[in-house]
């Protein structure tokens, strides 16, 4: 089992794009260009970019960050997702790759999969 976990973005179609910790924004910009991703936010009247774009498109952000460490307890998430439900391909990828995740990522992933995100 992996103690350090995974770090990167998981697309709606089940493709995982790995990055280093604190490199999510750089990878998001690269994916925006390479995958030719575009989304206009009608409310804000702007095109979304980088992290905001991927989050709005339903990508899941996996992080190893310990920024929320308070003593022995973490007050942060290791999976950031702003959609209503995971896609079937995202769920399958997570089920197949759960052992690559850190213990805290695994616990959060299992809890979210059980809740039926």
Describe the 3D structure:
- The chain is an alpha+beta fold and 117 residues long.
- The protein has one domain (8-115).
- Helix content is 35%, strand content 16%.
- The chain contains four helices and eight strands.
- The chain has a four-stranded antiparallel sheet with strand order 2-1-5-8. Strands 3-4 form a two-stranded antiparallel ribbon. A two-stranded antiparallel ribbon has the order 6-7.
- Strand 3 and strand 4 (46-47) form a beta hairpin.
- Helix 1 packs across helix 2 (50-56).
- The longest helix has 13 residues, at 103-115.
- The protein is globular and about 40 Å long.
- The two termini are 24 Å apart.
- The model has no long low-confidence stretch (mean pLDDT 89).
Number of helices: 4
Q: Strand order across the biggest sheet?
A: 2-1-5-8
| Rg of Cα set | 14 Å
Largest sheet: 4 strands, antiparallel
* Structural domain count: 1
Euclidean distance between termini CA atoms: 24 Å
Q: Give the H and E element order.
A: EEHEEHEEEEHH
The beta-strand count equals: 8
Helix content: 25-40%
Low-confidence stretches: none
Please state the oligomeric state of the protein chains shown.
Answer: single chain
Content of β-strand: 15-25%
What form results from the Cα inertia axes? globular
Mean pLDDT across every amino acid position: 89
Structural class computed from helices and strand pairing: alpha+beta
